[in-house]
Design goal:
The protein has helices at residues 27-38, 118-129, and strands at residues 4-5, 14-15, 51-53, 61-62, 71-72, 79-81, 87-91, 94-105, 109-110, 113-114, 135-141, 147-149, 158-160, 164-168, 185-200, 204-214, 217-230. It has 250 residues and is mainly beta.
Amino acid sequence: MTSIRSVHRSTKARIVKPFENFQGMSYSEWLMIWCNWLFSEDPDTYEGGNIIFLRGNVNYQPVNSSGLGPRYIDPKGIYDRTGQHRQSVFERTAVLVPVIVGMFINGELHEGKRLRTPEQLRYSANTEIHKTGPIWATIMKEGDAVAHKIVNDLKDYYVATPLFKLAVPENSLLKDKSDTPYNPGVYDMVAAGIFLLISSLPPSKYRINFGGKTGAYYTDSIYDIVVQGKRKETLEDISSRRPFIKRPWR
C-alpha cells in the first residue's frame, strides 16, 4: 500500500478554506452548481473551463430485475480516470473534489419518513454524511514517492446547501445510476458533503484519489490530471495606458 504523509506542501496546491469564497461564490454555491452538473447530459466531458468538477463512481444497480426497490453499488468498484482517460487542464484551473455527498429531494422517502421541509431535508443529508465510516482524499505529484493528504482534516470541509433547484434533463447520463433514480424534471433539493476546492496546481502530472463510506453510501475515485502551461489570456486591462480625457464637470 502506498504510504501517505499528512501534508501537501510538495504539490504547492492551494486549497480554498471552508469560509472563503472562490470566484465570488461560496462552497455551498459551488455544491449547488456541481449537483446540476452531475445530472447534466454529459458530466464526463470537460469543456475546458476555468474549473473542473470531479465525481464519484455513480453506478447503482437495482437489486432485482424489475428495476424497482433497493439499489446497490459494487463495494469494490472504482471510478477510474487514469491512463488514456486522464484529464488535461491549463495552469490556474481549479479542481472541485467531492469526497462524499448526500442529496435529498423534497417529498423523498428516507428511513421510513417522507421529507417535506428544508429542515427535514438538511437534517437527513447531515446525518447521512456524518454516519461512521472512512473518508479519504489524497494527491500525488509525478516524481513523488508517496501520496499526501490534501488537507489535514477532511471533516473541516463539510458543506451544506439551502433548498435549491435541481434540473434533470431528459438525456441526463446519470439520472438512472444514482442511489435514487430521477425522472427528468426540476426538483427542490438539499445537498451536503465533504468538498475540497483546489484553486490551482503548478504544471505537472497529478493523481488524486478520494472517496468514502458512510451508511449505505460508498464511492471511490481515482483521477490522473495533467496540468499544462498557462492558458492564453484574451482579456487585457489597459487602464494605465488609456489617455486622460479632460472634460468639464457638469
